[in-house]
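Recap from last week: sequence in, structure out.
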Amino acid sequence: MREIDDYTSPLDEAVEESDFAFELPGSEAGLVLIVDDEESSALLHHSILEAAGYRVRTFGRGSDVLEHLVSAEPIVLMTDYDMPEMSGIELAEHALDVDPDIKIILLTGRGDETTAQAALRLGFSDYIIKPPEPIALARAVQRAFHQRAGERHHRAMLTWMKMELGRRQNEIRDVTLSTLAAFANALDTRSPHFHGHSRAVALQAGSIAVGLGLSEDEVESVRIAGLLHDVGMIAVPDYIVEKSGVLTEEEFAIIKTHCDRGVEILEPMEHLGDSIRFIHEHHERLDGSGYPMAKRGDEISLGGQIVGIAEAWVAILESRPYRSGVPREEGLEMLLKLAGEWFLPEVTQALVDSDVGML
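Predicted structure tokens:
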């Protein structure tokens, strides 16, 4: 059987630089438009974001901001919900008609979370409860710019890939993986609780696959899936990722969409092969308690099981806003109790034998 130290992967080393790059925008790269009829609230938001390095303009009415939505530069729109003449919902509809890529953050009062969550389904990217914590406000705006950049990058990358396929057929796979790996790492950095998460899952999944005696191609598919398993989390707002309390049913439903969103992003990249299925299945469980399709038993691929247990193991070791990380021995006991219920016993044992944990 091959040892894990003998296994190499294109992901282990930097590949040749391509002429298509993805860089997360800095605070100076875009404009924040704030619409709030409460002058004191608008000034507070303005000062917080200006101190964070953003260029900001404030308006008291939705109609005042419409002409400023047509711009060549990236824009994030922050709007109050309840305003005279034009509500925040109506303003968002106009804004999305003008610029379908615009990211909109709803400003709402405490106690209006139901309205805010409904707004997410209408196209808002996030919401902020007034008065906001300065760090939470700046992070929400940063994430909005990152999400816009990521979506535009994805479309541009697909166009570029089609052109490159004819010219660089043999090189396109590694170039694409390099770009996607950078994207996954950028997503991990949006929260201090997820730094290095995707890399750790990829290493653990590859270790398990080697321990199970899979071929090099199979191991590589598993490692790629481990690295990209959370790409779909770009669709999950920061307020859910960073929530310190119990998630509501609606919030958990949003979390569960990340498997489908990941597939939507990666599906056009046919060269990723089985990795896409493994990503889709990494939250499925043998007893049917998982998501997004509640698959059972052998309906779940071996790769999906491997990435699933690797992600579960890394998540157990990591801290979260609502808990501290669990010590290794205690975490292994938790996983062993789930052998045969959530994960195949042989997959569970392969993790125990080849644990790399958090490096």
